[in-house]
Amino acid sequence: MLYSTLLYTTGLFNNPSASWVTIILAVVFITLAMREFRELNGGYLSYGEGVGLGTLTAAISGLLSATYGMIYTSFIDPTIMDQIIEANRERMEEQGQLSDEQIEAAMETMQAFQSPGITFFVGVLGAVLGGLLISLIVAAIMRRNRP
């Protein structure tokens, strides 16, 4: 939530590097959760436990982030979605790969998915799927099966 607020207030929400920081943070927190579980479980962590724990961690994080995002975009700064859409429009125009009609169609599609319910659902689903992928890798590295 702090990272999201930082991105929104500084205008870096459309910076491609920001998504890499989000992925790195997810890897770090999922790894920490698995390490803590392994320590509390006598030093053992099966692959399935790791994947389940990492996915659950991501799901909880996604729920919290999506809820915060809804609150932020609905009450704190309702103009942020318009700013994001406008930044996307500018980026598409700068790339010059799409016609004006295609850019307009893309903008209409973005606005259609701007409702709080859809944004919340996509945020949670994205966090769970991303967390699952990260967990599959991290659990393979962190696992220690009982002898």
Descriptive account of the structure:
This protein has 6 helices and no strands. The mean pLDDT is 92. Helix 2 crosses helix 6. The longest helix has 30 residues, at 47-76. It is elongated, with a radius of gyration of 19 Å. It is mostly helical and 147 residues long. The protein has helices at 2-10, 16-40, 47-76, 80-95, 100-112, 116-142.
The best one-word shape is: elongated
Sequence of secondary-structure elements: HHHHHH
- Which segments are poorly predicted (pLDDT under 50) over 5 or more consecutive residues? none
Report the sheet with the most strands, covering strand number, pairing sense and barrel closure: none
The percentage of residues in β strands lies in: under 5%
How far apart are the first and last residues' alpha carbons, in Å? 41 Å
* Average pLDDT score: 92
Output the structural class.
mainly alpha
Could you provide a short overview of the structure?
By secondary structure, the protein is an all-alpha fold. It has helices at residues 2-10, 16-40, 47-76, 80-95, 100-112, 116-142.
Question: What's the structural blueprint in terms of helices and strands?
Answer:
Blueprint: H1 2-10, H2 16-40, H3 47-76, H4 80-95, H5 100-112, H6 116-142
